[in-house]
Amino acid sequence: MEKVDYKKKFKELYLPKTKPAKVCVPKIQYIIIDGKGNPNYEEGEYSKAVGILYALSYRIKMSKMGSRDIDGYFDYVVPPLEGLCVQCMHIGEFDNEPETVSKIDNFIKENGLQNDIGIGRKHHEIYLSDPRKCNRTKMKTVLRIPIKKI
């Protein structure tokens, strides 16, 4: 099975600009955590979940199994986020994310779109930087909000 480098194949999804943009996310499998708590608290549930996420991702990347084979290794696989979304690269600490989310919200309103967060569609954050290993002021996180046309 051929390994896919998603950052290269779907560059617009994983390396967006710091200005919001509308994208159509194709059906792709992800490893997703539903984090809770303050991400700044190193011993908290959220930070532990991120650690597990990075460990699983690394294990899959370094193993011979491809990302398409992950279903059999998990009791529950979350359906992939797909469809229309607005996304933006957030650079900096978690506490400053509301500024980027505000830019996304303004883009949604200015372009006649509607936030579509609800059952089956959630706000997503794609961590490109491991917060346990990098300067938090330089962390890169893709913030993605599902939308629909009005």
From TrEMBL:
Xref: SUPFAM superfamilies:
Probable bacterial effector-binding domain
- Return the Pfam families for the record: GyrI-like
- Where does the GyrI-like small molecule binding domain lie? 82-148
**Any idea what this protein is called?**
GyrI-like small molecule binding domain-containing protein
